[in-house]
């Protein structure tokens, strides 16, 4: 059994802390030395991706210290315990099994006589069969007509991941003739969200997936009622248009009002649930079950890499360790995720929940306060759009923000134009290459307003093309990075008590049970 200790009690961490400012990245990345680094500091990921960390503040000395930290913190042993079914989520006393939804990495995990791998595969099959029947016209609307679009109703983990993955593959599926149905998403309890989505679909030919692990989320239940109301008003029977994805113990699971229910369980956290029915149902309907299976395969292959003890061959663990060095030793407050791919436009938003809800904690897994900083603020936008927005601060602001670039050699649609001797795709890729060097090396100018200090670290994940398998590998990479960082900080990364208080107070406002400031705000907002 691995031992769980606070980061600041580890001898290897004290050694690492002595290496603050050890690498001058502006110098290291200059000239031929820089060229050598870019060739050397790269490690393969799954699905043909590669993690290049040449522009991070590392050298052999820092990497050696990180390897010792990985060993002392028993990162691989902890990952093994996690996928073999240990109760890693100490706050809620639950196992953490999202890896098992993609592949059996270790021992069989059996709960109350149910093999969990078999359970997850059976639910995937249920989603696949349902999708195939919809595509074949075996499941239709009341008039026997085919459904042409699908709308997911969910929020948080029941929205962000599936939405990001759908947007990521919409063009790919169209270019590869696997696009089956258009998908839309309703998440916010703002009535303008549901109303606008409903106005954009043909109700009579739309399926609605109510996705809520708990089956109790106010926003989702309200939006479900909103949609049912619209269906009834249009003379349609809601139970012929709706299915549910939920846990077997949730109130939704008992309802007869759905075409089918696809189940998940308490061992897959909402923000890790895109690989369960939460993502599986909508992605199988939109692109076909085979495409969803390819996402799972990419994720599984990345998970397998994450079991490697050698940090230089384990991109997920290496990324996590470098991130902790940046956060705790260098003292950087945030991390930007910058995909040079329009298809990944919602991927940073998904990672925001995944990372900040997992590691935005001040107490360790035993409920004791920690004396060091934990999860950074995560934000991001696709490049090059971000360049024309917040990059000014990234280049010349007073904070240094580590950057995680993602780029692909080929576009998904392959539709392009050659202007002034380069294609749009080449312009996109030229920008990311330029940014890495600009951030790292900077440029001296006597006019300080035009001076770039450089020394701003970044990494880049490079792929051939954003395919379903590459997307699965990317997803797993960041999930595993977050997991390893949680291990290093000695956190429970798998609960989210910090979201409760606001929900409780909102209920009080709606019940008019308020006083003090809450009452005045309620009056100001006309509630
Ligand atoms: O899927 P649900 O049970 O409806 O939960 C939806 C979301 O709401 C909660 O408040 C949590 O903050 C999220 O982690 C979760 O993903």
Structure characterization notes:
GO terms for molecular function: glucose-6-phosphate isomerase activity. It is found in: Cytoplasm. A hairpin with a 5-residue loop joins strand 1 and strand 2. The chain has 18 helices and 15 strands. The chain is an alpha/beta fold and 527 residues long. The chain has helices at 11-17, 25-28, 31-40, 60-72, 75-83, 116-136, 160-175, 191-200, 218-233, 277-287, 289-305, 315-329, 347-359, 391-396, 424-441, 468-489, 500-510, 516-524; strands at residues 42-44, 50-52, 110-111, 114-115, 149-153, 182-186, 206-211, 242-247, 261-264, 334-340, 377-379, 403-408, 418-419, 422-423, 458-463. It has 3 domains: 23-86 and 306-495, Glucose-6-phosphate isomerase like protein, domain 1 (Rossmann fold, 3-Layer(aba) Sandwich); 99-294, 3-Layer(aba) Sandwich (Rossmann fold), CATH 3.40.50; 496-527, no CATH class. It is globular. Helix content is 43%, strand content 12%. Strands 1-2-15-12-10-11 form a 6-stranded mixed sheet, with helices on both faces. Strands 6-5-7-8-9 form a 5-stranded parallel sheet, with helices on both faces. The protein has a two-stranded antiparallel ribbon with strand order 3-4. 6-O-phosphono-alpha-D-glucopyranose binds at residues 155-158, 212-214, 217, 220, 270-271, 357, 496, 499.
């Amino acid at each position: 059994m691995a031992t769980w200790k606070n980061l600041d009690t580890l001898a290897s961490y004290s050694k690492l802390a002595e290496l603050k400012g050890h690498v001058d990245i502006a110098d290291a990345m200059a000239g031929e030395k820089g060229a050598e680094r870019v060739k050397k500091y790269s490690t393969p990921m799954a699905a043909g991706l590669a993690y290049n960390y040449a522009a991070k503040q590392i050298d052999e000395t820092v990497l050696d210290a990180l390897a010792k930290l990985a060993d002392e913190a028993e990162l691989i042993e902890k990952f093994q315990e996690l996928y073999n079914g240990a109760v890693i989520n100490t706050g809620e006393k639950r196992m953490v099994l999202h890896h098992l939804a993609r592949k059996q990495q270790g021992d069989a995990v059996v709960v109350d006589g149910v093999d969990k791998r078999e359970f997850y595969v059976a639910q995937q099959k249920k989603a696949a069969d349902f999708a195939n029947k919809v595509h074949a016209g075996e499941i239709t609307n009341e008039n026997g007509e085919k459904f042409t679009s699908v709308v997911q109703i969910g929020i948080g983990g029941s929205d962000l991941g599936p939405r990001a993955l759908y947007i990521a593959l919409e063009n790919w599926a169209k270019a590869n003739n696997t696009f089956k149905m258009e998908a839309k998403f309703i998440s916010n309890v703002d009535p303008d969200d549901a109303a606008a989505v409903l106005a954009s679909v043909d109700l009579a030919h739309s399926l609605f997936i109510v996705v809520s692990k708990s089956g109790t989320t106010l926003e989702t239940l309200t939006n479900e009622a909103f949609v049912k109301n619209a269906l009834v008003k249009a003379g349609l029977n809601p139970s012929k248009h709706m299915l549910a994805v939920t846990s077997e113990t949730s109130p939704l699971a008992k309802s007869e009002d759905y075409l089918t229910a696809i189940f998940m369980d308490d061992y897959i956290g909402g923000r890790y649930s895109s690989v369960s029915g939460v993502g599986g149902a909508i992605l199988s309907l939109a692109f076909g079950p085979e495409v969803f299976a390819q996402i799972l395969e990419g994720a599984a292959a990345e998970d397998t890499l994450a079991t490697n003890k050698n940090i230089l061959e384990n991109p997920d663990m290496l990324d996590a360790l470098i991130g902790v060095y940046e956060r705790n030793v260098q003292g950087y407050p945030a991390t930007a995720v910058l995909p040079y791919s329009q298809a990944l436009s919602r991927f940073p938003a998904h990672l925001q929940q995944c990372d900040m809800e997992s590691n935005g904690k001040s107490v360790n897994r035993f409920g004791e306060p920690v004396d060091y900083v934990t999860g950074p603020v995560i934000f991001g936008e696709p490049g090059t759009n971000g360049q024309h927005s917040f990059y000014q601060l990234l280049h010349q602001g007073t904070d240094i923000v580590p950057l995680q670039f993602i780029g692909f050699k080929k576009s998904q649609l392959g539709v392009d134009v050659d202007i002034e001797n380069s294609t749009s795709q080449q312009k996109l890729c030229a920008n990311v290459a330029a940014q890495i060097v600009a951030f790292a090396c900077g440029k001296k100018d006597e006019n300080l307003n035009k001076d770039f200090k450089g020394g701003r670290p970044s990494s880049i994940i490079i792929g051939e093309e954003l395919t379903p398998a590459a997307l699965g590998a990317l997803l797993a990479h960041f999930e595993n990075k977050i997991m390893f960082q949680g291990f290093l900080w000695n956190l429970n990364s798998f609960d989210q008590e910090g979201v409760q208080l606001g929900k409780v107070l909102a209920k009080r406002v709606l019940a008019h049970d308020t006083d003090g400031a809450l009452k005045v705000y309620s009056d100001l907002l006309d509630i």
